[in-house]
Design a protein that fits this description.
By secondary structure, the chain is mainly beta. The chain is about 10% helix and about 45% strand. It has 2 domains: about 100 residues, OB fold (Dihydrolipoamide Acetyltransferase, E2P), CATH 2.40.50.500; about 120 residues, NigD-like, C-terminal beta sandwich domain (Immunoglobulin-like, Sandwich), CATH 2.60.40.2370. It has a 5-stranded mixed β-barrel with strand order 2-3-4-6-5. Strand 9 and strand 10 form a beta hairpin.
């Protein structure tokens, strides 16, 4: 399930200001973005309540995406999407966050000068927010209705390690309590499209649960590829079928990293 989050709002701000996602190089580069004005645009009450007037953490802070790797107990680091490692030596501002191994996350941080052996980056964490992270599931005649096929747009797709990441947009009524459901499925119904020899075909599905389509929302979801690892052997990549908002059924191609 998913709902609109502060970082989804950040993505919307990026789009509103015509910052092209390819220029952001979501698929190829370290996802560092200056967020000096982040608090102004996102108005995160929880974060603001944690910082005193003397704290200037918004100055020079950065934003990235990564995967949590638990070392032991509550100690952890981040695998970033370019393969580098980030160690959070200062977690003063992180409260009541449950750390889960292999969880995909948005990371708001401040770089620190002191180096940590074995890590490219040493940082002070400002905030962590989970990215919806799910397994790929089968679509059957029995589950088709509950999985749904409501309109949704794909903005970018990229593969990071064992994850397929999808930046997307869908309409909602701007009520955070109203949940939508996103899934990446292997269509096992009679209506399934045949996979090409070199590509495995999947479908990106959206269930809006009859939510009123008032506002265009943005988000990122990550899907674990381990469930289809055997099916990817010998394949060049994935074909993703999507029921888009404006153009109906569309197919997107994402190649596996060699």
């Amino acid at each position: 399930m998913c709902s609109i989050s502060p970082y989804h709002a950040f993505l919307k701000y990026m789009r509103k200001n015509k910052i092209n996602s390819k220029k952001m190089q979501l698929m190829k580069k370290l996802r560092f973005y200056s967020v000096i004005l982040l608090l102004t645009f996102l108005a995160i009450p929880m974060l603001q309540s944690c910082l005193s007037d003397a704290d200037d953490t918004s100055n020079g802070t950065l934003f990235t995406i990564g995967t949590i790797k638990v070392i032991e107990d509550k100690e952890y680091y981040f695998n970033l999407d370019d393969g580098e490692k980030m160690y959070p030596s200062d977690t003063t501002y992180i409260h009541n966050y449950t750390v889960n191994d292999d969880q995909r996350v948005f990371i708001h941080f401040l770089p620190l000068e002191e180096s940590i052996p074995g890590y490219k980056y040493n940082v002070k964490l400002i905030q962590i927010e989970d990215i919806l992270t799910k397994d790929i599931i089968p679509l059957t005649e029995e589950t088709a209705d509950s999985i749904g096929n409501d309109h949704i747009n794909v903005v970018e797709l990229w593969i990071t390690g064992n994850y397929l990441n999808i930046e997307h947009q869908f309409f909602h009524n701007n009520n955070s309590s109203k949940k939508h459901m996103l899934n990446l499925v292997i269509n096992q119904t009679e209506q399934a499209s045949a996979s090409e020899d070199d590509y495995l075909t999947l479908e990106f599905r959206h269930n809006a649960y009859d939510d009123e389509p008032r506002t265009l929302g943005w988000g990122v979801v990550s899907f674990r590829l381990k469930e289809i690892a055997n099916q990817l052997v010998g394949k060049k990549g994935l074909k993703i079928i999507v029921n888009t908002i404006y153009d109906g059924k569309q197919t997107y191609t994402v190649d596996l990293k060699k």
